[in-house]
């Protein structure tokens, strides 16, 4: 078995275990179950956003507005809580989901119906969403004391000893897994990203499929927005600033092909956990968090280089074939 | 023989190809062809689609390397290892679709790759503009050297391409279907230009399917057929019919399956189908059990019509009846629901999703059948995929294998299995055997016969005459977006097809 034939998820899993082992060699406390659980819980928002981003990237698009969507939806939830402290918490999560999906639908429509490249659309909406937060909040913070206790406590409710936030992430992982592996829409994601021309002939509406990927990404970002604001008990304009890069990074490290058409839920989760471990380990080993940027950047480049290597022989065959297909015979 | 004819016959042979062989895996594209181009003469290269014309152009311009034979420049053997070498030797090509840069100016396009240099090796823009303007003026083109190419029409772009050819002091100018996209007036202007290039002593290779142009412009002809050299001579010594015979006359070495078609009720009727730019007034009826061939030259609008039929583009007018009920097909999904499927020509690009496994490719348009409560069921997907892959004798280690790792022939089987799994009533095969070897061709032909035998209505779009004649029960010939002939039985002969497709028949009618 060569390196190339081992599933990427296995390699990534081993890398994460090795990383934990290295850290544990000097700081055994890091690998205590309770600490690992808290690392995983901290990483839950990244996992949820990466799941949505994964669907979008698989369809050959990209969603740079996820972090801004998270912040805007989070702010809307916070303001609603301030204005109506009695708003039932059971409805807050579905509401955030719908608001986020709506914001994602804006991206989707601009890509589908107006035909603007996704990177431009989401770069634009990223800024617009942040601007709207400013308009809504007047630039001021919504602080913990303004929020109701039930609002801020919701993500921390323990279920079987694990925070609800983590459970929601688990449900999201399972849901997206089912969606992409077991439904016609999930298959369409891969088909559209793998070969949009062929997808059209197969009766798949490419634009609509990409639209739905954006809606999914938006819904997950919105839902995470509420959980984020509640967990950290603060909402302001710059929440999760730059987080979209971590999200894209988690996908790329997890083996999602940036050119679309390939990737797995397992890879994405592991990609996010890899970044989560680094983020949580650096303070422990007493390295400046700024190193985290350099390390995750390096990890991205290594991951892409590995992707390129594993795809190369295939690429050659495709090139040869393309050459033939132009051949008059 | 007059004096001038003799001196012409002895005209300087600038570039000669001697016994050129070019092989692609499974296909011999050129099998020992000869071609000689003489100074001050236009040589027309004539041949059906697939005769090897484009391959020869690519060899002449250094894009392909021949596997055998010799290229002689002024009688001395030469090699063109890359496009630059060919350009330096003075060989330049004006392609079907001109390969120019939209966002650069006319002057930049003319001089790209060999811009005049000033001090410190920087581009001498003033000199470049001046020379570009001179060249454009010399060919009578009133084009501003400063405008972007994107702002020019196709005819003007051709002029820029010609100016580019002149800027490198080309001795051999290859024109590959240069009139395909031009209006009548623009064609006349192009002809005047060709005459001018001739008078400057350039050797011109003119490739066209249009006989009127060939007889109007060419001094000599060379005919290729199936990658082989058939003949050459002076254009004055041959008639239209002679050329057609040379193009199509062949030893029948392909065996087509014997069928005894059982033709049933009409399945699909198309009436007055039109598109603003691609095709007009298409009418025909397709019956079950029938193979209906669509013949025409490349660009006759056949594929465009088929794509409209399955809802990829919208027709401006026209009605489709399926089983005598009017149906509006707005999307490929609707076409699949109506039982009409289209296997596109460019299967690499439009066929399989190479990253997905075989079974997922096969079930892609049929997921409704293999799902329950909105969730796909892998066991049923495998069962469906296995049924059709076995029918096509698809050999793969497992249906879980990604399609990208299969051979080209097997990928094609996956695509066909995908369409059969939808249980269609009408299957449209666009150039079903293009680019595959003889053995696979026979398998595809057998399979088509089997489909028709099972009562499917089959439409086969093909540019290969033997295939059209060998497989079709009826042939529709399209030319410039219109149906120009519908042929059956004894009317179906190679000569008749070519005459209709090239427009010779219409010229005769107009003349009478």
The counted number of beta strands of chain B is 22
How far apart lie the N and C ends of chain A?
40 Å
**Computed Rg of chain A:** 21 Å
Strand content of chain B: 15-25%
How many β-strands of chain A, per DSSP? 2
Number of helices of chain A: 13
How many strands, what sense, and barrel or not for the largest sheet of chain A? Answer: 2 strands, antiparallel
Membrane topology (chain A): Multi-pass membrane protein
InterPro entries (chain A): ABC_transp_permease
GO molecular function (chain A): transmembrane transporter activity
GO cellular component, one term (chain A): plasma membrane
Describe the structure.
- Chain A: It is found in: Cell membrane.
- Chain A: One of its GO terms (cellular component) is plasma membrane.
- The complex is a heterodimer of chains A (329) and B (512).
- Chain A is mainly alpha-helical and 329 residues long.
- Chain A has a domain at 39-240.
- Helices cover 74% and strands 1% of the residues of chain A.
- Chain A has helices at 8-26, 33-58, 66-83, 89-112, 118-137, 149-153, 164-182, 184-194, 196-201, 206-232, 243-253, 265-284, 290-325, and strands spanning 158-159, 162-163.
- In chain A, a hairpin with a 2-residue loop joins β1 and β2 (162-163).
- In chain A, α2 (33-58) packs across α11 (243-253).
- Chain B is of the alpha/beta class and 512 residues long.
- Chain B folds into three domains: 3-248, Rossmann fold, CATH 3.40.50.300; 262-339 and 425-512, P-loop containing nucleotide triphosphate hydrolases (Rossmann fold, 3-Layer(aba) Sandwich); 349-423, no CATH class.
- Chain B is built from 20 helices and 22 strands.
- In chain B, strands 6-7-8-3-9-10 form a six-stranded mixed sheet, sandwiched between helices.
- In chain B, α5 packs across α6 (154-167), α9 crosses α19 and α15 (378-391) crosses α16 (408-420).
- The longest helix of chain B is centred in the middle third of the chain and has 16 residues, at 184-199.
- At the A-B interface, α8, α9 and α13 of A face α2, α11, α12 and β18 of B.
